[in-house]
Amino acid sequence: MKLARRVFRLGTESAFEVLAKARALEAQGREIVHLEIGEPDFDTPPHIVEAAIAALRRGETHYTPSAGIMPLREAIAKEVSCTRGISVEPEEVVVTPGAKPIIFFTLLALCQQGDEVIYPNPGFPIYESMIRFVGARPVPIRLRMENGFSLDPDELRRLLTSRTRLLILNSPGNPTGSVLSQADVEAIARVLQGHDCLILSDEIYGRLIFEGSHFSIASVPGFKERTVILDGFSKTYAMTGWRLGYGVMPKALAKHITLLMTNSNSCTATFSQHAGIAALTGPQEPVEKMVAAFRERRQVIVDGLNALPGVKCPVPQGAFYAFPNIEGTGLKSKALADLLLEEAGVAVLSGTAFGDYGEGFLRLSYANSVANLRKALARMEELLTKIVC
Ligand code: PLP
Q1: 3-state class of 114 per DSSP?
Q2: Ligand 1 test: best mutation among 18, 124, 214, 228, most atoms within 8 Å of CB?
Q3: Fewest Cβ atoms closer than 10 Å to its Cβ: which of 65, 111, 126, 233?
């Protein structure tokens, strides 16, 4: 079959591949602890589920406008205005099936051959995949453990050129769990002053934060006009399977992103949109409880990892990932991740699944029970004690 060249530029999320491998081992009777997949292990709060069921029963089973139903766009505009301290209008909001399409659509709408896009590495693998897919040049900015995986403004200054079209930021970050402080974000904004590149600010983990608070670059005076905020319901409300996310962006861009929605999905599932209104306007205690549970698990996983031979794990400030350095084990990341799955029955991701600068690290999702985390740590200890002298 003759395929278009662009399909060979697509990357992937290896979490799905590792999950498939783990499931195959389970089918052979092995018991696996799953620390690979990036989704909350909690169920969607019941009032959100009920709102979706009620919408279906009312007959909300038809197409909606491509950018989403107005009450949801209004609720999102209110939420984002309030949490980021900016004034957002519903017309600046585009609702999408999950937040991922905002990455794709933003790159499609803004970038073409010859353009450069700076993105965090290690970082969410879809950034690099989509940058390559649209024909732009990926320019990784290295996040270093010694800087708390923050983005170094001086390094950013060196990477910016007249061809830089977009900078992707992600805080709290996947896979590192690092959070950019207000001072960090303001330092980045100062470097961007005088450059006309836009910013895609991936804030999908913005509510899952354990220390400090989330600060968006859109909150810096003059930056809302050049920022696309990506956010959604998957992580905050444990709604990964509902496929509900959104982008907040200047109206001139929203018009084109809406057209991309019309051309690709028509609209986001109607019942999911109604569930989204309930999520934003209903009680927030379930979110608070989930964050409290993640905080407890974070302690268990970080303490446990730091007690393992050859492993050093910084304390992540947000999201639900630990990103330990494993160089002391003498093994490469992928080799250790494979051994852990095959020999110890613990599914984790190699840091290299998040870019070349992820070598030397593993990513563990601690969206799992404390009992399972302890089981995984005990198995890792048994394996590593044999390997590391
Ligand atoms: N951005 C980051 C950093 C993520 O980790 C994810 C999901 O893993 C997404 C975006 C996409 O979220 P969604 O499932 O809503 O498409």
Answers
A1: coil
A2: 124
A3: 65
Residues 77 and 171 reside in one and the same domain: yes
CA 225 to chain centre: 23
Q: Are residues 276 and 294 in the same domain?
A: no
Distance 51 CA to ligand 1 centre (A): 23
| Ligand 1 touching residue 234 (CB < 6 A) | yes
Burial class (CB in 10 A: 0-12, 13-18, 19+), 332: middle
Instruction: Answer yes or no: do 337 and 232 share one domain.
Output: no
User: What is the model's pLDDT at position 25?
Assistant: 96
123-152 pLDDT, tens digit per residue, is: 999 999 999 999 999 999 999 999 999 999
Number of folded domains in the chain? 2
Q: What is the pLDDT of residue 13?
A: 87
CB hemisphere CA count around 134 (13 angstroms): 24
Ligand 1 near 122 CB (within 6 A):
no
Whether residue 234 is found in the same domain as residue 302? no
What is the atom index within ligand 1 of the atom nearest the CA of 13?
8
Residue 163, pLDDT score: 97
* Ligand 1 centroid from CA 39, angstroms: 9
| Distance of alpha carbon 174 from alpha carbon 336, whole angstroms | 20
Q: How much distance in Å is there from the Cα of 119 to the middle of ligand 1?
A: 15
Measure 37 CA to ligand 1 centroid, in angstroms: 11
Q: Give the Å distances, CA to CA, from 227 to 73, 273, 385.
A: 18, 24, 48
> What's the pLDDT score for residue 188?
98
Ligand 1 neighbourhood includes 39 CB (under 6 angstroms): no
Ligand 1 nearest atom to the CA of residue 103, by list position: 10
- Same domain for 359 and 302: yes
Q: Is the CB of 272 under 6 A from ligand 1?
A: no
Q: What are the tens digits of pLDDT across the range 294-341?
A: 999 999 999 999 999 999 999 999 999 999 999 999 999 999 999 999
Phi first, then psi, for residue 141 (nearest 5°) are: -110, 125
Residues of the domain holding 29: 5-44+285-388
- Give the domain CATH number at 137: 3.40.640.10
The tokens describing 36, both together, are: 């690979």
Tens digits of residue pLDDT in 74-118? 999 999 999 999 999 999 999 999 999 999 999 999 999 999 999
Q: What is the CATH number of the domain that holds 314?
A: 3.90.1150.10
pLDDT for 388 beyond 90: no
